[in-house]
């Protein structure tokens, strides 16, 4: 049902798909499925066309629709699910904490949604997982550490505020993202630039006020400084300008 105009939330009753709730792969080999026409399934990020007679595919593809709301926790009961694709929707909230219960899953695509929060640690227990795409969400924090997770493609984590392998960015204090060279990540870098610009402008303003007060204020409060000021411009400065003009005229003549 991918690439349709489905809207609303994902039904919680999906947990009743008994074939997808199978715990072992051997159980799946006894089911066959004969579609009326050939079909295209997106599995592990690739489109695969299937013919008229295949083994039962325990795949759930709801990608490129207008689904909203949160990912129901009930989907994690589908322990025999092989592929789950919810990409290209408007899903919000957190990734279910029990996502690690889908023990047989090989491909998980939740990209291009509005998911937030951290990646659940249980995802690192998915030993069959070989394709994970969480890109372009609002996820943050450290990617759970495991040999399985670190062997996945880094492109599946971009477009978030994530850190740690397989990304090149490392995690700083509190799970904040920092670049490999130790430079603050985009968010912290922008904040520092704004603070520097703010203090730079403040310095200019304070310097202008102090300079103005140092030069102009004495003219208002002291008759002596007013006389000195006008004497400087009327006599000394004018004399210097006139002297330079005479010397210049003498040189060119």
From TrEMBL:
<dbReference type="Pfam" id="PF00560">
    <property type="entry name" value="LRR_1"/>
</dbReference>
<dbReference type="InterPro" id="IPR001611">
    <property type="entry name" value="Leu-rich_rpt"/>
</dbReference>
<feature type="transmembrane region" description="Helical">
    <location>
        <begin position="198"/>
        <end position="221"/>
    </location>
</feature>
<keyword id="KW-0433">Leucine-rich repeat</keyword>
<protein>
    <submittedName>
        <fullName>LRR domain containing protein</fullName>
    </submittedName>
</protein>
<dbReference type="InterPro" id="IPR046956">
    <property type="entry name" value="RLP23-like"/>
</dbReference>
<keyword id="KW-0732">Signal</keyword>
<keyword id="KW-0325">Glycoprotein</keyword>
<keyword id="KW-1133">Transmembrane helix</keyword>
<dbReference type="GO" id="GO:0016020">
    <property type="term" value="C:membrane"/>
</dbReference>
<comment type="similarity">
    <text>Belongs to the RLP family.</text>
</comment>
<keyword id="KW-0677">Repeat</keyword>
<keyword id="KW-0675">Receptor</keyword>
<keyword id="KW-0472">Membrane</keyword>
<keyword id="KW-0812">Transmembrane</keyword>
<dbReference type="InterPro" id="IPR032675">
    <property type="entry name" value="LRR_dom_sf"/>
</dbReference>
């Amino acid at each position: 049902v991918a690439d349709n105009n489905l809207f609303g939330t994902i039904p919680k009753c999906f947990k009743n798909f008994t074939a997808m709730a199978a715990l072992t792969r051997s159980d799946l080999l006894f089911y066959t499925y004969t579609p009326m026409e050939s079909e295209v399934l997106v599995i592990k990020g690739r489109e695969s066309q299937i013919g008229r007679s295949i083994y039962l595919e325990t795949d759930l593809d709801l990608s490129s629709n207008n689904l909203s709301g949160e990912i129901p926790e009930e989907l994690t009961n589908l322990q025999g699910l092989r592929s789950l694709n919810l990409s290209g929707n408007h899903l919000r909230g957190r990734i279910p904490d029990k996502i690690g219960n889908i023990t047989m899953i090989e491909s998980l695509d939740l990209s291009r949604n509005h998911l937030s929060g951290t990646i659940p640690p249980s995802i690192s227990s998915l030993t069959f997982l070989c394709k994970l795409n969480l890109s372009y969400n609002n996820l943050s924090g450290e990617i759970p550490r495991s040999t399985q997770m670190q062997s996945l493609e880094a492109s599946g984590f971009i477009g978030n505020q994530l850190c740690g392998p397989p990304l090149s960015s490392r995690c700083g204090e509190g799970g904040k993202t920092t670049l490999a060279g130790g430079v603050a990540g985009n968010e912290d870098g922008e904040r520092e630039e704004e603070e520097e610009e703010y203090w730079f402008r403040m310095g200019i303003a304070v310097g202008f006020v102090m300079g103005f007060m140092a030069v102009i204020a004495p003219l208002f409060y002291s008759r002596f400084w007013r006389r000195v000021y006008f004497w400087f411009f009327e006599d000394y400065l004018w004399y210097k300008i006139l002297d330079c003009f005479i010397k210049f005229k003498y040189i060119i003549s």
